[in-house]
Amino acid sequence: MAAYLLVDTLLDNADLYEQYKLKAKPLIEKFGGEYLARGGRMTLRETDLWSPSRLVLIRFADVETANRCLDSFDYQQILPISKKSARRTAIIIEGV
Length: 96
What we know:
alpha+beta
């Protein structure tokens, strides 16, 4: 069953975050991840529980593959760039 990685990002250093994006994209794709949305325009309809900043949505084949990607040595090497340049919430949700 497909899995979706949803990341909400509040950028603190946009220039540094660009370095993360350049390195993360090919790695995500190496694990079969497909970007469905990447920081595009949002229309907030309801925000009782959460008001997102900048959303990224990536589809993986399944939860296990999404976790393997995020836990991989290569991803762990570039994750500090993201942590230095942004605050994030990341979730993996099983879908259809």
